[in-house]
């Protein structure tokens, strides 16, 4: 089963991160590096990426067949997607175990979602 | 068939035999497999331009053997430590018939020390002869992920001291049961509702059936092996009718039965009939018997639901589970009417772990639909559509909800 582990950031997490010392930040990066390695090593990694700051975001609106964009950041957004891991594991419990290692989970900002697939049995 | 796909078929056909030929001489199955992979690669590069040699298997064995020696030399320092004891144990005393080799390899790939994902990958790789790239495409994951799964599985087998010989007879039943679970998982993973030709995609259902045939040839006395093969054939026979031209799922009752694969049905029915007469009953055999009853009905209205209901009853004693219970409810409704099914569902839901599963909503929606309560049916179809993890099912259930809404 494939699961998407979604990591969001909000003001609380950002403030905490900004208050960290260099050593504390290095530790945070290391947690992600270790998680990444463990997933590759176990053959459970599908893909993982970190996303650029929401200031780099562009919102697209298509109307009358023409696309217009608005530049971020968007002040009304309280939480934004900061990165994700897609894993292919035996059970949801395993996906949760991995997700729980992510530091952002301390702020309740990590979510595990099943990925829809094509396989199924007859109805 | 193009020349390239002819060569691919030829390579797949010979890969396993070459591995065995080499393993009999060299002992270390894992190293032999690596060597044969390189020989296959060489063949895939050379044969299309140079032509297929007169004796492809001999060519592959010679190249693989040479490559094995090179690999062995490169690795000699490490190997020297492991080799002496291990090789002697793995090497059979005399010639080993090919049949035993395949079964042994099946059991090794589905070794209980491996995770299910590793068992699946290793079985397709070592027994099925698929490349890591093909397996990766089948499961929609990166090739590196599959390569890593296989390499870890091999390390694990080494670490636990698993060897290329048959486990003691008292372990056979349980070990074969694991192989069956792995094959059924591969089959279901491939039993998708994708539409249109999928170029370059290995059909996992076809592969699972091929492997089940091989397993049955090695283990003809096992009723459950035969049962699983029959179940796969009888299910796969409906594949073409299962989706519409736009890729939407079509329910069993509404399928165009002229599009069912008659040859597969005949074969499946023959296997299950013969097996039921002579083997202790098991869950795969029962499911195959149910599939046969569906496949043999010329029209949906002529389905022998009484017998299906009895078989689900048997299934509940042999291998109980929530899905069995639900299927039995459907069969009951088909025999005694939708209200009987709904009553049974209500009674079940209060006391079991069924509550909240999308299939419960799907079944209830279907029964409410049959009973004429469109509004409630729509509600449950919608809930089922929200909860399923399968895209074609989601689409099907949403369409049903919309249809119920219009009435």
As a percent range, the share of strand residues of chain A is 25-35%
What does the average pLDDT of chain B come to? Answer: 84
Largest interface: A-B, 23 and 38 residues
What is the ordering of alpha helices and beta strands of chain A? EHHEEEEHE
Please, how many helices of chain B? 20
Account of the 3D structure:
- The complex is a heterodimer of chains A (123) and B (407).
- By secondary structure, chain A is α+β, with helices and mostly antiparallel strands.
- Chain A contains three helices and six strands.
- In chain A, the strands form two sheets. In chain A, strands 2-5-1-6 form a four-stranded antiparallel sheet. In chain A, strands 3-4 form a two-stranded antiparallel ribbon.
- The two termini of chain A are 20 Å apart.
- In chain A, 16% of the residues are buried.
- With 407 residues, chain B is mostly helical.
- Among the domains of chain B are: 76 residues, no CATH class; 79 residues.
- Chain B is 74% helix and 0% strand.
- Chain B is built from 20 helices and no strands.
- In chain B, α2 packs across α3 and α7 packs across α8.
- The longest helix of chain B is centred in the first third of the chain and has 24 residues.
- About 7% of the residues of chain B have low confidence.
- Classes of the chains: A alpha+beta (123), B mainly alpha (407).
- The interface between A and B is medium-sized, with 23 and 38 residues.
Describe what is shown at a glance.
The complex is a heterodimer of chains A (123) and B (407). Chain A is α+β, with helices and mostly antiparallel strands and 123 residues long.
Keywords:
heterodimer, A: 123 residues, four-stranded antiparallel sheet, two-stranded antiparallel sheet, 3 helices, 33% strand, globular, B: 407 residues, mainly alpha, 20 helices, elongated
């Amino acid at each position: 089963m494939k699961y998407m582990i979604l990591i969001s950031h909000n003001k609380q997490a950002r403030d905490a991160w900004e208050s960290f010392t260099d050593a504390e930040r290095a530790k945070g990066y290391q947690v992600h590096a270790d998680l990444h390695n463990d997933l590759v090593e176990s053959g459970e990694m599908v893909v993982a990426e970190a996303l650029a700051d929401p200031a780099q975001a562009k919102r697209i609106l298509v109307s009358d067949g023409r696309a217009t964009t608005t530049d971020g950041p968007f002040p009304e957004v309280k939480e934004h997607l900061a990165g994700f891991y897609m894993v292919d594991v035996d059970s949801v419990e395993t996906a949760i175990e991995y997700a729980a290692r992510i530091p952002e989970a301390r702020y309740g900002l990590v979510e595990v979602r099943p990925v829809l697939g094509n396989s199924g049995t007859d109805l | 068939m193009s020349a390239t796909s002819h060569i691919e078929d030829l390579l797949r056909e010979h890969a396993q035999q070459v591995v065995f030929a080499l393993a009999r001489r060299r002992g270390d199955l894992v190293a032999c497999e690596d060597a044969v992979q390189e020989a296959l690669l060489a063949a895939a590069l050379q044969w299309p331009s140079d032509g297929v040699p007169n004796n492809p298997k001999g060519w592959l064995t010679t190249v693989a053997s040479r490559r094995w020696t090179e690999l062995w030399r490169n690795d000699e320092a490490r190997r020297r430590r492991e080799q002496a004891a291990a090789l002697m144990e793995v090497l059979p005393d005399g010639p080993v018939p090919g049949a035993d080799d395949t079964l042994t390899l099946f059991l090794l790939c589905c070794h209980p020390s491996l995770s299910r994902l590793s068992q699946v990958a290793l079985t397709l790789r070592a027994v099925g002869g698929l490349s890591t790239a093909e397996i990766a495409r089948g499961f929609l994951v990166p090739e590196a992920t599959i390569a890593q799964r296989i390499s870890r599985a091999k390390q694990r087998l080494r670490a636990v001291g698993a060897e290329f010989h048959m486990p003691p007879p008292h372990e056979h039943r349980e070990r074969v049961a694991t192989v069956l679970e792995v094959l059924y998982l591969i089959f279901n993973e491939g039993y998708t509702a994708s539409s249109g030709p999928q170029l370059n995609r290995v059909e996992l259902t076809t592969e699972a059936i091929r492997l089940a045939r091989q397993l049955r040839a090695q283990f003809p006395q096992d009723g459950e092996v035969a049962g699983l093969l029959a179940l796969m054939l009888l299910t796969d026979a409906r594949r073409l009718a299962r989706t519409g031209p736009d890729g939407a799922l079509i329910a069993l009752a509404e399928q165009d039965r002229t599009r069912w694969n008659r040859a597969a049905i005949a074969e499946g029915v023959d296997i299950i009939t013969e097996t039921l007469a002579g083997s202790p009953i098991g869950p795969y055999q029962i499911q195959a018997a149910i599939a046969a009853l569906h496949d043999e009905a010329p029209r949906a209205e002529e389905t022998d639901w009484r017998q299906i209901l009895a078989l689900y009853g048997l299934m509940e004693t042999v291998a109980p589970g929530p899905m069995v219970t639900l299927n039995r409810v459907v069969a009951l409704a088909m025999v005694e009417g939708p209200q009987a099914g709904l009553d049974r569902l209500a009674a079940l839901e209060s006391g079991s772990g069924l509550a909240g599963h999308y299939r419960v909503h799907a079944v209830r929606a279907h029964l409410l639909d049959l009973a004429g309560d469109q509004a409630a049916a729509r509600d449950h179809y919608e809930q089922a559509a929200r909860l399923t993890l399968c895209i074609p099912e989601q689409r099907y259930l949403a369409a049903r909800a919309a249809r119920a809404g219009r009435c």
